[in-house]
Automatic annotation (TrEMBL):
Full protein name: Methionine biosynthesis protein MetW
Coiled coil: none
Record-linked Gene3D superfamilies: Vaccinia Virus protein VP39 (3.40.50.150)
InterPro entries for this protein: Methionine_synth_MetW, SAM-dependent_MTases_sf
Source species of the chain: Desertihabitans brevis
Amino acid sequence: MHLRDELAVVADLIADGSRVLDLGCGDGELLGHLQRRHGCTGTGVDVDPGAVRRAIRSGVSVIELDVDEQLGEFGDDSYDVVVLSKVLQATRRPAEVLAQMSRIAPRCIVAVPNFGLWSHRWRLLRGRMPMSRQMPYDWHDTPNIHNATLVDLEEFLAGLGFAVESRVLLDEAGRVAGYPPALANLLSGAAVYLLARTS
């Protein structure tokens, strides 16, 4: 099975044999890949009963929990890495979710769409809400409630005490892109961050 681009980036940031907690795991695609190809163990978390059933059918261990409310169920340092891919912007309390992730594991991987993408800015100038492959929802049915640019996000992460160990930029189609730092916020459709807690 071939992982979609941003999940392949996430998988490359996880050491073989790691204990992984995948928040908002959907059908368990990432965890299944990590178990089969990288000798990882772990647990998926999702609030959608249908996704949980699909993940279980594919052989992935999944718990149906609300990421905003129930991460206290996991012990301190009970995993090596926590993954939150394309979910942070849909949480009600992102700072609390990130704090819980940092408590659960020494490293966190966060993938987020970039609201600062040039085409989003252009749509706003034309009086329309942004839409793209990374943010495919219309304004009235989007699950995204906390949109951020990469600059906003990185300031937020630093304020929460995270160190960015690695940042992988993705283009509008979700492929890895080597944009210069000065243009990253303008050209990136999304980014994947490997974070370490600093205290």
